[in-house]
């Protein structure tokens, strides 16, 4: 790909490409801190659109774990989540398939010359399993992506994408030709913080609520042609 005129699409994962499901975090938190699954309490805020490490610490505390113990368990959580995801691959394939149009949208963007990666709060190991099992990893360059183990605060992740893009392609990422596709208000805020364009998909949050956060566009679903034309319009490509 020619770096000087490259356009980049940066996908969120949970809620955008595949349905969000907290069962994996629930199991990993329970094992990490020795809590029964049914006793896990997720905080009302700071879940959707946040990083796994942030969610895990907040969830452990909300579930009765002392804050210092919750923080000390983060490193073990990484190991436990890897086991949980590996053990759950068949269940993941059965219960959490990709949203309709997800693969076709990624494939069509690839055909039109867009580089693509992910920016997700998932730890890399979880994101890789989810994308591979759902059949979405073929055209995604995860080597330039950003994950929840790159930074605990999501707003720091765009800089990771920018740095990895420059390292791979030998040119600075043009923010005017970069589009985030996400589904949560924090996805929108994160993209805006970085100066990226942003498209919101109303998979689980109503369009009216997403409109309050002023994304560049809102899609009701991942229709291949609509995704490509919307991205192209924002990046002046095609």
TrEMBL record:
Q: Name one GO molecular function term.
A: phosphoglycolate phosphatase activity
What the entry lists under InterPro entries is as follows: HAD-like_hydrolase_sf, HAD-like_sf, HAD_sf, PGP-like_dom2
Q: Does the keyword Transmembrane helix apply?
A: no
Task: Alphabetically list the UniProt keywords.
Answer: Hydrolase
Q: Which GO terms describe its cellular component?
A: cytosol
Q: Which Pfam families match?
A: HAD
The Gene Ontology biological process annotation of the record reads: DNA repair
Superkingdom field: Bacteria
Membrane spanning segments where? none
The UniProt entry, under PANTHER family, shows:
PHOSPHOGLYCOLATE PHOSPHATASE (PTHR43434:SF1)
Protein name listed in UniProt = Phosphoglycolate phosphatase-like HAD superfamily hydrolase
């Amino acid at each position: 790909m020619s770096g000087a005129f490259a356009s980049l699409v940066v996908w969120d994962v949970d809620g955008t490409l595949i349905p969000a499901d907290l069962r994996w975090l629930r199991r990993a938190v329970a094992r990490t801190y020795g809590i029964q699954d049914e006793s896990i309490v997720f905080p009302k805020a700071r879940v959707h659109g946040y990083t796994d490490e942030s969610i895990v610490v907040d969830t452990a505390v909300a579930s009765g774990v002392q804050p210092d113990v919750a923080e000390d368990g983060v490193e073990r959580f990484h190991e436990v989540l890897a086991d949980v995801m590996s053990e759950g691959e068949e269940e993941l394939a059965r219960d959490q398939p990709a949203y309709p149009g997800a693969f076709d949208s990624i494939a069509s963007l690839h055909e039109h010359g867009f580089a693509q990666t992910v920016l997700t709060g998932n730890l890399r190991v979880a994101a890789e399993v989810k994308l591979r099992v759902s059949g979405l990893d073929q055209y995604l360059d995860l080597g330039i992506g950003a994950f929840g183990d790159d930074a605990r605060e999501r707003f720091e992740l765009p800089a990771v994408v920018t740095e990895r893009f420059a390292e791979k392609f030998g040119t600075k990422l043009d923010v005017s030709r970069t589009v985030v596709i996400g589904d949560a208000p924090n996805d929108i805020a994160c993209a805006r913080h970085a100066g990226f364009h942003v498209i919101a998909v109303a998979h689980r949050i109503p369009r009216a609520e997403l409109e309050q956060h002023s994304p560049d566009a809102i899609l009701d679903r991942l229709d291949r042609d609509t995704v490509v034309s919307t991205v192209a319009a924002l990046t002046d490509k095609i």
